[in-house]
Automatic annotation (TrEMBL), chain A:
Protein name per Swiss-Prot or TrEMBL: small monomeric GTPase
Principal localisation: other
Protein's organism: Frankliniella occidentalis (Western flower thrips)
Stored InterPro entries: P-loop_NTPase, Small_GTP-bd, Small_GTPase
Keyword set, alphabetical order: Endosome, GTP-binding, Hydrolase, Lipoprotein, Nucleotide-binding, Prenylation, Protein transport, Transport
Subcellular location: Early endosome
Ligase is among the record's keywords: no
Source species, domain of life: Eukaryota
Family to which this protein belongs: Belongs to the small GTPase superfamily. Rab family.
GO biological process assignments: protein transport
Automatic annotation (TrEMBL), chain B:
Function in brief: Acts as a GTPase-activating protein for RAB5A and RAB43. Involved in receptor trafficking. In complex with EPS8 inhibits internalization of EGFR. Involved in retrograde transport from the endocytic pathway to the Golgi apparatus. Involved in the transport of Shiga toxin from early and recycling endosomes to the trans-Golgi network. Required for structural integrity of the Golgi complex.
Skewed-composition ranges (Polar residues): 480-500
The organism of origin for this protein: Frankliniella occidentalis
InterPro entries: Rab-GAP-TBC_dom, Rab-GAP_TBC_sf, Rab_GAP_TBC_domain
Region annotated Disordered, chain positions: 399-444, 480-557
Localisation: Cytoplasmic vesicle; Golgi apparatus
Residue span(s) of domain Rab-GAP TBC: 99-291
GO MF annotation terms: GTPase activator activity; small GTPase binding
Keywords: Acetylation, Cytoplasmic vesicle, Golgi apparatus, GTPase activation, Phosphoprotein
Protein name: USP6 N-terminal-like protein
Quaternary structure annotation from Swiss-Prot or TrEMBL: Interacts with EPS8.
GO cellular component: cytoplasmic vesicle; Golgi apparatus
Gene it is expressed from: LOC113202908
């Protein structure tokens, strides 16, 4: 709860039809490509030497879905284990999360599972979680089979895609899939006061995730 | 994989990485073409070694270089009389805050850090640690990942496995076994790289070590598990914000940008990457001279200097401003550094300049440089358990900070308040309502004339020197002021009119108003109060806001005849300070107790 007025204070927010604003957090081991995915999604760029994230970084991006504009407030967190203790600050109150692993690194997949568990326990009960197997362009050094990840995602009701920040494969797609799955019943109105959080309506959080991956 | 296989794999992985750095770029080294950034013909290198696109206009540093060349002579002279200057550092300090000439930075940084002495004492230790690290360090993988991502836009670090990358890898891995409590923490690589821009490998190692364990800097507490020093520094930063920039603090809180979110990189890397590099160097000059209090003061200084812009922005833009735009700020470095010195004085007066020495949990517990074999979990890079106790403290405190901010905001909304007052007033009052309302205390008494002063460049001193106390300005007060003054709640003054006077509250006129009274103040109903007051002890943290019922503010007097001039100078010999209203003395004003107990 307790979302800020944020974009609600934009003067023209009422003229654009339905606008929804969601907090999304990226989690996953260091160097799996969290920052790279965000950079690709937000700016359409890829940097081979993307600096490591210290603490967290914040970016926003807006996507349009039929009659709805969905604005993502994205928190890209630091991957090193030591920063784990700060993560609750970022996933607290998040409506969506992307948990990223590197398909060439089995350990990072194990780490992703730990994150899933933690979110299921600690984050908002309605949080939409997506699992991203990143660096799909490096499929010839693959260590995590797509089927295995897909099965795990199905078991846990997660969205799943293999992505590549480098080639842009499935990057917009995964964000769009999340946008589609998020409940958009309530509109952000113009009257922005600090605590006017949108109460997310109970929705089909148990609904079966669309199988969505591999090739 | 069984345990043995895991160990073998980890050892192999480490050996491969170490081997690559050991051989660097010598003939036969296999370096994928994508590992090296391409140099384009449009690229130019700035005076610090960063590579830019020539087509994008860069600052012209010619004049700065000229000035520095002239200063070099003085610095060289100072080097000869170093012992004297270290003992009585007034001149040294003055010059350091003007900036150490870049050509002599390495020399003087080394001196400020006492590297010669340390190296004498620790002869051979660095090589020893490096050799152990290559064999044992469990942090090699992370270090390798980060060397690959550290300042690749700098000439020294551009080439994969180039000389300085090798050095960076070496000192970070050596340090990771030298200080096992830290090992390697993300954030250290940029600091080490900065040191390597000015020093050789071994010196940079000892410099890093001094920054981490010397009690002047004590960065140890930042990087260890649970980040205890970060939590403490953030609390301290909050105290400063509440006292000196309450409006801005409330604004940031309201937009979800609390201290926990923007100060981590500031403190962990002493402002690297958050201000322009050339300014970061100046800040580092000061940091190396004066130590950790510089970290605190720079944070305050930056927010103070940029607060007008920040006050206009919503969440997204505030964060973009703090993350990106501040790094591209064109503000003159000299002005920032001068302002920094004033901030330091201001904080000192309020006894908020130093968050205190590191408590035991922030200090190293194990001796440095003694090798102990890593545990199985460390070797294979697996965490031993759930969060440790220390980490849980960190988690709780970051979550708590957010919760309290939210509760406070909610409370501000629920409780009735007069139209002229902002939630800020409430916030503060709720902290002090436990005590006798007539008791004026340090925390309440936190009005600083510069808070709302459009020109942050006016020093506190210059305001003090001019005894102008009646400059009218809407940005400081609204009509509610007077009733507050009678209520002895001076602190709330600074918080008034956040919303009520709308955008006017942040009029960007850069006029030192105390010197140049604005002739046509928009409202006659305005006062300026100058309270040169320093609390004898810093107020205790205002943590549990939730449990005190907010006191409603008295109704504002709306007579537009009101004009109130108060001068309170607690330091002066006078016991009573007159209050003058409509030009007449109305009642004596007395401070009963300068302290207040915040429970
Ligand atoms: N081949 C390939 N490389 C990638 C991809 N995504 C990221 N990388 C590279 O992987 C490295 C790490 O990427 P980052 O985005 O910095 O990883 P991160 O997860 O944000 O790391 P931390 O900030 O340390 O947590 C960089 O060198 C990227 O260039 C990808 O899809 N394909
Ligand atoms: Mg990152």
């Amino acid at each position: 709860m307790a979302n800020r007025g944020g974009a609600a204070q934009r003067p023209n927010s009422q003229t654009q039809g339905k606008i929804c604003q969601f907090k999304l957090v990226l989690l996953g081991e260091s160097a799996v490509g969290k920052s790279s995915l965000v950079l690709r999604f937000v700016k359409g760029q890829f940097h081979e030497y993307q600096e490591s994230t210290i603490g967290a970084a914040f970016l926003t991006q807006t996507v349009c879905l039929e009659d709805t504009t969905v604005k993502f407030e994205i928190w890209d967190t630091a991957g090193q284990e030591r920063y784990h203790s700060l993560a609750p600050m970022y996933y607290r109150g998040a409506q969506a999360a992307i948990i990223v692993y590197d398909i060439t690194n089995m350990d990072s997949f194990g780490r992703a599972k730990v994150w899933v568990k933690e979110l299921q326990r600690q984050a908002s009960p309605n949080i939409v979680i997506a699992l991203a197997g990143n660096k799909a362009d490096l499929a010839n050094s693959r260590a995590v089979e797509c089927d295995e990840a897909q099965a795990y995602a199905d078991e846990n009701g997660l969205l799943f895609m293999e992505t590549s920040a480098k080639t842009a494969k499935n990057v917009n797609e995964i964000f769009l899939a999340i946008a589609k799955k998020l409940p958009k019943n309530e509109q952000v109105s113009g009257a922005g006061s600090a605590n006017q959080g949108r109460r997310l309506v109970e929705s089909d959080s148990s609904a079966k995730t669309a199988g969505n991956c591999c090739k | 994989m069984n345990e043995e296989e895991l160990l073998i794999r980890a050892a192999e992985e480490r050996a491969i990485i170490v081997n690559k750095y050991a051989h660097g770029r010598e003939e036969g080294a296999q370096i994928d073409p994508w590992e090296d950034p391409q140099f384009e013909i449009y690229h130019v290198t700035d005076r610090y070694g960063f590579i830019h696109d020539e087509r994008i206009a860069q600052r012209n540093d010619k004049k700065q270089i000229q000035v520095e060349m002239e200063r070099e002579k003085k610095w060289l002279k100072m080097a000869k009389e170093w012992d004297h200057h270290k003992r009585s550092p007034e001149k040294l300090r003055r010059r350091v805050y003007k900036g150490i000439p870049d050509s002599l930075r390495g020399t003087f940084w080394s001196r400020l850090l006492n590297l010669e002495t340390i190296k004498q004492e620790q002869k051979g230790k660095y090589e020893e640690m490096r050799a152990i690290a290559w064999k044992w360090s469990p942090d090699i993988r992370q270090i390798d990942l980060d060397v690959n991502r550290t300042y690749r836009d700098h000439v020294m670090f551009r080439e994969r496995y180039g000389l300085k990358q090798q050095a960076l890898f070496n000192i970070l891995s050596a340090y990771s076994v030298y200080n096992r409590e830290i090992g390697y923490c993300q954030g250290m690589s940029q600091i080490a790289a900065l040191l390597l821009m000015y020093m050789n490998e071994e010196d940079a190692f000892w410099a890093l070590s001094a920054l981490i364990c010397d009690k002047k800097y004590c960065m140890h507490g930042f990087y260890i598990q649970g980040f205890p020093k970060l939590v403490r520094y953030q609390d301290h930063h909050d105290k400063i914000m509440n006292k000196f920039l309450p409006k801005l603090k409330k604004h940031l809180d309201r937009h979800g940008v609390d201290t926990g979110i923007y100060t981590l990189k500031w403190f962990f890397q002493c402002y690297l990457d958050r201000v322009p590099f050339r300014l970061a160097l100046r800040i580092w000059d000061a940091y190396l001279l004066d130590g950790e209090r510089v970290l605190i003061a720079v944070g305050y200084n930056l927010l103070k200097l940029h607060r007008q812009q920040l006050m206009r922005l919503g969440m997204d833009d505030i964060l973009t401003y703090l993350q990106i735009r501040m790094e591209r700020s064109e503000m003159d470095d000299d002005i920032v550094m001068e302002s920094l010195q004033r901030c330091m004085e201001e904080l000192k007066k309020a006894k908020l300049h130093y968050p205190g020495p590191s408590p035991p949990d922030e200090l190293p517990k194990m001796p440095f440089g003694t090798f102990t074999e890593p545990t199985f979990e460390q070797k294979v890079g697996r965490r031993t358990s759930e969060l440790t106790a220390l980490e849980r403290v960190a988690t709780e405190s970051v979550v708590l900070r957010r919760q309290q901010t939210e509760e406070q905001l909610e409370m501000d909304q629920l409780s009735p308040r007069p139209p002229g007052a902002t939630s800020n007033g409430h916030h503060r009052l709720s902290h002090i309502s436990g005590s006798d309302g007539g008791n004026l205390g340090g925390s309440k008494f936190s009005f600083d004339p510069s808070i709302d002063d459009a020109s942050s460049l006016v020093s506190r001193r210059s305001l003090a020197d001019t005894s102008v106390t009646s400059t009218a300005d809407l940005s400081v007060f609204s009509s509610v002021t007077r009733s507050h003054a009678q209520d002895n709640s001076l602190d709330t003054h600074s918080n008034v009119s956040d919303e009520s006077s709308g955008p006017r509250a942040i009029t960007p006129t850069a006029t030192p108003r105390a010197l140049t009274p604005q002739p046509s103040a928009p409202s006659p109903d305005v006062v300026r109060i100058y309270v040169p007051y320093s609390s004898p002890s810093p107020p205790s943290p205002c943590r549990q806001n939730g449990d005190l019922p907010p006191r409603s503010l008295p109704c504002p007097l709306t007579s537009d005849q009101n004009k109130l001039i108060i001068k309170v100078d607690n330091n002066s010999q006078e016991e009573q300070t007159p209050i003058v209203e409509h030009g007449h003395l109305v009642k004596p004003f007395q401070l009963n107790s300068p302290e207040i107990d915040l429970k």
